[in-house]
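One chain shown below:
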Amino acid sequence: MEAAGLAVARLAAALAPHARHVQVWAGPGNNGGDGLVAARHLHAAGRSVNVSLLAQPDNLPADAAAALQRARAAGVVVTHATAAGAADLHIDALLGLGTRRAPSGELAAAIAAMNQATPPVLAVDLPSGLHADTGMPLGAAAVRATATLALLSLKPGCFTGQGRDHAGVVWFDDLGVQAGPPSAWLSGAAKAAARLHASHKGSHGDVVVVGGAVGMVGAAWLAARAALAAGAGRVYCCPLDASAGLLDSAQPALMGRPAGWWADPRVPAKATVACGCGGGDAVSAALPPLLSNAARLVLDADALNAIAADPSLQTLLRKRAARGRPTLLTPHPLEAARLLQSTSAEIQADRLAAAHELASRLACAVLLKGSGTVMAAPGRQPHINPTGNAALATAGSGDVLSGWIAGLWAQQPETAALDIAAAGAWQHGRAADRWPAAARGAPLRAHDLIEALAQHDGR
């Protein structure tokens, strides 16, 4: 607790170096004790510190009670107020990891006071009222922090669901303690595929995009453009709309092929196939041969809806795994809900568990899109993607992601689906993070996203 409180005080001083008045909100557990230790150090550093202790002192755990005694002895003002006083910085030390009930009463009032305050809020270990594993608020009251100092380990809930909105910028201090086994991995930059000098376009793999039903042909071309930008050697776009043109004049390197061209088993057997982007009802007929023959398969959008509605397609999907042919599903929450016969609210309530269940049930890798994209696969620890922002909430960004991942996978055919998904999602989000207009909340249009991805340097 002494180490944790000192770490909080140091970060508070770094984040708000000119803050003269600090309000610490301390709760009934050891999280409150961390706040009391931080208050003592900030007071010793010359800050004006007020602690609002929302607990009975006699009921505090032993370490927190000792921290309270030392804080008072050092001259820290400790009250029981639930209204925010004049402060330049708030420190949220109300509730910790063990909380499983929605905050109520005085705790809820204190959370409301912090959320309504103008000064920044630093959360200790986890924003109060946020579930540490799911990233979902436990009830109506949950702190929206400017920054969070995670202690001992990073908490999955700070990176997925609504966690990123509540945690703000996440900092980490292991306090010199070795962490236990992880429940998930936070994705990072992946090494790019090597491109040898003595190579040719056939060395970098083929991608076949199948999608684009009537009125949605653009989705297929977006996916194809993204696959080409990712570095695939040859990219074929096969619109399901038989009347669609077979040339993208903006990207003449893409090769259009008529609907049904991919039905020859030799075509998908040597390619990475991205299927479903704008596929409509027509994609159902395309799925059986692709599920049976594709070497690597990325399934998105209407392909997922077709599989959710047809048990025979689910059987074919599971048989692929038995034959050693990898598949990646890329659903958004509603598509995942259809596959699990659930609701999008239930998916969002525990994104890690939903992705794991979907991967286990269909014997494939899953990329569950959303804030804090989750990747899961049978027998593997899940990954959470930390990159990206709301600029990606625009039409076509999912099609770009599917095509981009297919383009990466074509170049690295031996890479596991989970790992290629993690790399692609990280790069996809990183492109949005580096897009200048994201800072002012402007949407990142799909064709601009492709160009941003094409310029990525892997960092």
Notes: The chain has a mean pLDDT of 95.
